[in-house]
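Q: I'm writing up a methods section and want to include an example of the input and output format. Could you take the sequence below and give the corresponding predicted structure tokens, formatted cleanly so I can copy it straight into the document?
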Amino acid sequence: MTTHGTTDAKFQTVAEEFERNFAERDEVGASVCVSVNGETVVDLWGGVANPETGEAWTEDTVSIVFSCTKAAVALCAHILIDRGALELHKPVADYWPGFARNGKEATTVQMMLNHESAVPGLREPVKKGGFLDWDYMISRMEDEEAWWEPGVTAGYHMVNFGWTVGELVRRVSGKRLGQFFREEVAEPLGADFWIGIPEGFDRPIAPIIPFVPDFSKPMAPFTQKLLGDPQSLQALSFLNTGGWGPNDADGHRAEIGGGGGIANARGQVAMYTPLANGGSHKGVTLVSPDRLAAMERCSVATGIDATLLCRTRFASGFMKSMDNRAYEGGDQTSAIIGDRAFGHVGAGGSIGFADPECGLAFSYTMNQMGAGIMLNERGQSLIDRTYEILGYRSNASGAWVR
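A: Here is the clean output for your methods example:
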């Protein structure tokens, strides 16, 4: 498989690992981008964007990046926190009174960012096309009875994070989530990243290729519960979608902040580069140094996440390094990055993150989904080579360290 783009000579092993993904790990189409101290050192793409037509993955190809979108939503909230328009420890009721009922009255903004706001799934079926209707989904967030007392535990808010945190962004800023992200982040940075593509969008969008599980191999506890109990939180949070699919044109236009973002690796790196370099890059400031320092700090950690059924660590809306290698299904529930790094994975194995310790912004996106709910060998191998090149010694501790 021929890959295209540019690589700094120092980062040649990342390019070799990217090619190995195609040769040995069933990669179909993908992109990887790395910047260090604000300079792009890897910008590669390759493979097939659409197997049905044979269309190649080009420099401009984008795809659904699933939950990588949550980081974009969290960033919007932090921009507003930095401006004093949104306060982290205030009750959500101060901004969104309708949410504060059915056991959710004590929810704070921090809890919402921490996946502690107790609406990780919806018990009753989402109407057909419900994910495309913002007002309907906000009403469902308000009506849902809390799954637990807010703040006492955390459970990953699969797609609902985009409506809980996204509605805070809308109410405080007066702009729809996708508009706020576009005007405050994507356009100033020239980032190919959208939460809801605009009319007339003409970029090639690579269709997502679902992962076909091998039932003869061990599955993570989340997957076991998802497949074994249709009324479980795991099944309801993942499957109760009103028929939404990642390849639906209507879904691409909708502002689905919990999992519908459209981007490629270069687009995500453009968003993360300021966050790896003090909050600013080339005259664009996203957040202050103080806010950036808070954004990287772990704000919640679980022994067992109520939704994902594995150990998780979050930093106010961003994922931290998650090492579940010692546990059942650990190869499907781990994403190992630097100790100070923060970002987010997407279903099937995509990822974007910033590491302020070494000025690193990294992203990998693809169309062929892999197993599990975190990374798989394709993305993790690219991250590992990058940290090794930057002089990091080991990830045995659960995060890459020098």
